[in-house]
């Protein structure tokens, strides 16, 4: 009887430890790395659509891990590469900092919505915050749409906009 109880307990432990935790249920649908294809902002009052992150070709990757953690790095189109990484001026370093973002944390995915719970970022004002996006899937592409927000850019400050980012899954090497 003891051996049957032990085998039953072992089977229950093995099945519980191999299954994703309930807090990450559904996340397996987006596990992997995605490359940023485009990022556009639409102003709600006029319908005008503009490229974000410096132009038509920003660079970026977002990775979702099986354990429920994520990382993202985006750099603007047209960033200037310094001649020497160790001899950059304060102005060059400032320009590089202002033309990127990066953060990491945990995530939850529910099929049409993803939540990023940021615990580390390139800009500490983002650490401890949440980013929520509506998600549309089309094959290997994820399209993220923001809720309407007041644009923080100097030239368009306060105008209501939504942003759309298109990510494409990177094939395994």
Gist of the model:
Helix content is 15%, strand content 42%. With 173 residues, it is of the alpha+beta class. β5 and β6 form a beta hairpin.
Layout of SSEs?
Elements: H1 2-18, E1 32-43, E2 49-51, E3 59-64, E4 69-75, H2 90-98, E5 100-109, E6 113-121, E7 130-138, E8 141-145, E9 149-150, E10 160-169
Antiparallel strand pairs: 1-2, 1-3, 1-10, 3-4, 4-5, 5-6, 6-7, 7-8, 8-10, 9-10
Can you walk through the features of this model?
The chain has one domain: Lipocalin (Beta Barrel). The N terminus is likely disordered. The protein starts with a helix and ends with a strand. An eight-stranded antiparallel barrel has the order 1-3-4-5-6-7-8-10. With about 170 residues, it is α+β, with helices and mostly antiparallel strands. The longest helix has 17 residues.
Low-pLDDT stretches are 1-25
Shape: globular
Structural class designation:
alpha+beta
End-to-end separation: 49 Å
Mean pLDDT: 86
Q: Tell me the number of structural domains.
A: 1
What helical percentage do the residues reach? 10-25%
CATH topology: Lipocalin
CATH class: Mainly Beta
Beta-strand share of residues = 35-45%
Radius of gyration: 21 Å
Placed side by side, the strands forming the largest sheet appear as: 1-3-4-5-6-7-8-10
Which second-level CATH architecture applies? Beta Barrel
Which characteristics define this entry?
Lipocalin, single chain, alpha+beta, 173 residues, 2 helices
